[in-house]
Every structure is written in C-alpha cells, then in structure tokens.
Specification:
Blueprint: H1 2-13, H2 16-31, H3 36-43, H4 47-54, H5 62-72, H6 78-90, H7 98-104, E1 107-112, H8 123-131, H9 139-151, E2 163-169, H10 170-174, H11 180-194, E3 199-204, E4 221-225, E5 231-237, E6 240-244, H12 247-263, H13 267-279
Helix pairs in contact: 2-6, 3-4, 5-6, 8-9, 11-13
Length: 282
Amino acid sequence: MGIAMARAENKESAGPAARMAAAVAKRMRVKKGLTQDQLGARMGYTGAAVSAMETLSQPVSDEMLVKLEEVLGEGTGIFEEMRELVRLEKLPQKFRDYAPIEQRAVGLCLYAHHVVHGLFQTEAYAQALIAGGHPVPIPERVTELVDMRMARKVLFDRQPPCLIELVLDESVLRRPFGSEEIMREQLLYLAGRARRRNVYLQVLPLDAGLCGEYAGDRGELNLVETPEHDRLAYLDVQDESMLISDPAKVSTYAQRYAKIRAQALGPRESLGLIERLAGEGR
C-alpha cells in the first residue's frame, strides 16, 4: 500500500518538464519499434524502470536522461536540454527562482548563521542535515535533494569564475551533524575551499557581540551580482524565501553584510580556526 501511494503521489506531483520527458521518450521508443524491455536493456535499466518513467510512477532521473539521449536522442540534444528543466522542477518551490540566478552569478556574498551554506556542504553533511529535517523526507527525496545540492558546486569551477565570499558564524563550525567524523570532514572541506583563489571565507566569532554591536543577529543572507551587474538579495528562513530586487532594500542588506564581514576574523585567522577545530576530532 505504501509503494502504491508513493507512486500515485509521484504521478500527481510530476511537473511539466518530467511529463514532457516521459512523453517524448515513449514516442521516440515506439517510433524506433522498441519495447520497454529492449530500450531498458540498451540503457542499462529494466523494462519496469522504463515503464515507471513513462507512466510517471517513478520520476525520471538525471542519469536516465543521459542514457535516453545516448540511445534515443539521435544527436538532437533534446534530452540533454531537458536535464536542467527537470532538475529545477525537483528543487523545493522556494528555491526554484534563485537557483539559476546563483549559477549565473559573477559574485556572491553569503552569510550562514545556523548551518554550513549549501554551496559549501560535503555530501555526508548534507545527507545528515536533510535526512534529519522535519517533516521527515522519504529516502528517495533525500537522495534527490543531496544530489541537487552537490550539483550546485559546478559554480566553483565555472569559467569565467564567480567570486564567492562566505562569512560563517562560529557556532556553525561547532554544531556537528551526523557524527564527529562527518563534521571533521566538513571542516577540512571548508579549509580546502578557503584556499581557492575565487573564495574568501571568514568566521564571525562567538564573542563578536562583546564589541558593543553585532550585525549578524538577523540570520542568514545571500547577496548576488548578476552578469548584468544587477544586485539582488535572497532570504530563506523556515521554508519561506524572498528574492529582493528593490535597490534601496538591497543596499540596506549590502551594508549589513559589510558590517558582518568587518566584525569577522580575517581570512587567514579564520582558516587557522577552522583547521584547529578539525584537529580536535583526531
């Protein structure tokens, strides 16, 4: 009963891109005179998996779209073009507008207050974080969300490069998820990212408020510079999000971010702290 209900929910929740991919795949399969079993064999899947994709009882995966392009695409690139659309469709609704903007950005200024920013998470850290959320997601959804979070990291190696500034509250570094080893791996990963030439990573220390003011009290903040050099702010809290383009509001957020960065440790001192905390797990 549980499996049947899950399949019914998948059919109901399937978006336009997934429906189009399923319809095109079925038509091209039939045109080639292939059965579901025959197509599955050529792709490395079972006939049942092909059937589940065509009937939308199991959402089409990124890997299956790659295979569909190889076997049915005939050099058209049609399934390759669908990959990005299907990926966006699988994202949480609140993140769909921001995700493509993030990937095109020429500059990002980020402040993470509670957990490591998604762009800087290891797979194990993301797995522990997402699986432990509420409402509790089904395992398949956890895998989807983790895979999509890891896919965002292509931004680090994109050409031309994106300049990424990240300020992490020190509490983020001291709040473990999954296990001590997962957290140590996450800290070492942060240290590695901090050494990249297009990344500036700073830590806002726990005692920052002792100076008489504290700019990080209102939570996380994402500032984006687009290829057209427009500036946007993105806020995400408690399953709600806002993408802000009003210049006056974005200016206020930019000034707040500048204050947060000014109150943080310098990049070298921040890297030293992260490395010391990683060493504590040995």
